[in-house]
Amino acid sequence: MELPPSHLRANRAAALAAGYVCYRRGSPGRGLRLRTVRRAGRQDINGVGPKYHLELVLEDVLDKDSTVNCTAEVLYHLGNKNIAPDVQFTIEGELKNTDEADNIFYSQIKSLEKELVAENIPDSHGNVSPEMEPIRLLAWAASGYVMWQNSTENTKFQFAQIKHVKQVKRSDECLEFDYMILLHEMVSQEIIPWQMTVLWHPQHGVQVTQDSRQPKHASE
Prior knowledge:
Shape: globular
Distance between the termini: 45 Å
Strand order of the largest sheet: 1-2-3-4-5
Radius of gyration: 17 Å
């Protein structure tokens, strides 16, 4: 069934799909977000749940003029909140190459004498310092995993802020960061603190090894 692109639940599915794409394709050098829904459709899969067929435009967080078209399918499992939605996507065309930016960030973090610690990214004025931008984009990508794992037809998550981040020393080649982030759940208008442990390596992408919703006072 064809839906108007402005359809509320189609837009929730589109936000989930965009978050998932960013989790799979994002890095300290690249963040992706939903710009617009071009087309939307919905079908009911008997015994499973609703499936949304979407045509999206995604934009680069750092360069709004850099966009890609994306087709996606989102299948929600009705009645079972323990199963994350199934998300399939195809990006049309090429994403901007970020190998150089990713490798520079990797080398910088590896060369630090003390583990990185930071808080409030962006700050209360919405500003992000250039050296913290890769830290934010890594959290942006990782938050896509949290959104994917916790989304239903009745939720729409948006990354809001890093409250606190601390690098964790490792003996292998991966970088590890312990994040406390804030997610904005747009339907209920809740601001939710969420802890996540994130591994990253230029060759292996983003991996969230542990995450948990925190009580509201945890972000204070």
